[in-house]
Amino acid sequence: xxxxxxxxxxxxxxxxxxxxxxxxxxxxxxxxxxxxxxxxxxxxxxxxxxxxxxxxxxxxxxxxxxxxxxxxxxxxxxxxxxxxxxxxxxxxxxxxxxxxxxxxxxxxxxxxxxxxxxxxxxxxxxxxxxxxxxxxxxxxxxxxxxxxxxxxxxxxxxxxxxxxxxxxxxxxxxxxxxxxxxxxxxxxxxxxxxxxxxxxxxxxxxxxxxxxxxxxxxxxxxxxxxxxxxxxxxxxxxxxxxxxxxxxxxxxxxxxxxxxxxx
Length: 263
What we know:
Layout: E1 21-22, E2 28-29, H1 31-36, H2 54-77, E3 89-92, E4 99-102, E5 115-117, E6 126-128, H3 132-139, E7 145-148, E8 153-158, E9 164-167, E10 173-180, E11 187-193, E12 201-206, E13 213-219, H4 224-230, E14 236-238, E15 248-256, E16 261-262
Parallel strand pairs: 7-9, 11-13
Antiparallel strand pairs: 1-2, 3-4, 5-6, 8-15, 9-10, 10-11, 11-14, 12-13, 12-15, 15-16
Domain RING-type: 9-44
Pfam families: Sina_RING (PF21362)
Keywords: Metal-binding, Zinc, Zinc-finger
């Protein structure tokens, strides 16, 4: 219990899931609270751009695996009691001024977590969504550039030459991908997300002196080859004349598909 208390976020008081962050003095906090503040809530030092706490991530995964394993053993031992009639629990409802009967709680196995492709073209691994950032940090060809946004937009320097992720205040992490068009002299830009709810979002780019352009967000269950072969026309297309001799500052915004407004 004392070790688990080390994974408690000092702001929301919840157990810190991956990705965990820390200040230079070692104080940890969760990804939601990290995206909402620029200073450590304990010692008030400034939080730098690189503040991941991989030890906290490993501890969380170790505890999760241990508890699931022990829960599975208890479930096997209780197989002889599955035929018995269990009494119905009567719990007071917080919403209705009466007693609401609820069925007895039965232990159910944890659903299998979806695996996603690594967005790196040089890597063919499949990972869980909670392990994606850690995998990119250890298997990337170069440094991983991360942007933590309080709103749904940020400014990037194009053309992008490094692997870039954008994390919004809701702990949604998008991976920006820029590649050459297979049949034309232009660039294709899209966002990946480690979720099957990718169709709920849209990518919008705003270049200086040009109207905003929008493209699709794809789940990481799609590889880059599948995107280029099946949905290249749904990506954002950028030509060489869209950039000047130096880097061009581009506004990247994630839109909600349901109402076409920023999330």
